[in-house]
Amino acid sequence: MSQVRIRIPEKIKPGEIVTVRALVSHPMEMMAFKGGKPVERNYNFVHKVEATYNGRKVFEAATTQAVSQNPFVSFTIKADAPGVVKVVFHDTQGKAYEGQVEIKF
Amino acid sequence: MKSQQDPRSTRRAALKRLGATGVALGALGWGLVVPGSAAAQAGAGMPLPEENVADTLKRLFGNRPLQAAGERIKFEAPMIAENGAVVPLRIDIDLPMTKDDYVKNVYIISDKNRRPMNAQFSFTPDSGKAAVGTNIRLASTSDVRAIAETSKGVIYETRREVKVTVGGCGG
Q1: CA distance A94 to chain B (A)
Q2: Which residues does chain A have within 8 Å of residue B122's beta carbon, measured at their own beta carbons?
Q3: For residue range A71-102, what is the model confidence (pLDDT) as tens digits?
Q4: pLDDT tens digit sequence for B71-108
Q5: B53-166 architecture in CATH?
Q6: In chain A, N or C terminus with fewer CB closer than 10 Å?
Q7: Does A4-103 carry CATH code 3.30.930.10?
Q8: Residue ranges per domain, chain B?
């Protein structure tokens, strides 16, 4: 299971708008390849990204196969309380990749 | 050895036939594979239909007018993308994010991809600001649109042309 990597700025002031950057290793493929040739349709891509901040949903993305391999998303949150930002990537094969980061002042 | 080759060749032939029957049958095939509920739910596991960009806009926004965003959307996209498989995009939206009036959805739509609808991002007033960045695949040189929909239903659109040197396997 690959890991979600999340980055936030090192220093955060209360009330500041913070950019959160999340990255997951995922092939985002539509075709299964064997020896460089497509062999069958294999819809395996991240179709949903959800972010919560202290349990409140702050961001959601519906992504498609047109998002690059190893999908990267950045979004903003208003850091008004210390807590945990959790980002979950769901793929079409039913797997979920989860990562979290703590916001401290 | 011979017996091993036989099933492989028939499978290849079957795939070729599937390709030749075209979009209509292909769509039917997908319909059979997906349970009805999953097919009805947008983006739940299956690719969106292949369509042209006018149909995509109609499907998403109906007949609501798209306003030119002007300064309201800051959309950063490369003028020339050497690799169509990774085109970095950044969208910064300068619109109020209050409880009554906030940016609800942001769409990335690329005109020439086989499936123009690339990504949809949803925000809440807690987001503080609607700003998003991601990497997308582009099949060929095309206009990429960033479209913002507010909670009041106003739609703003801006676009950039991205020249693609090597297409990323068509999204």
Answers
A1: 9
A2: 59-62
A3: 999 999 888 889 999 999 998 888 899 998 99
A4: 889 999 999 988 888 899 999 998 888 888 999 999 99
A5: Sandwich (2.60)
A6: N
A7: no
A8: 2-40, 53-166
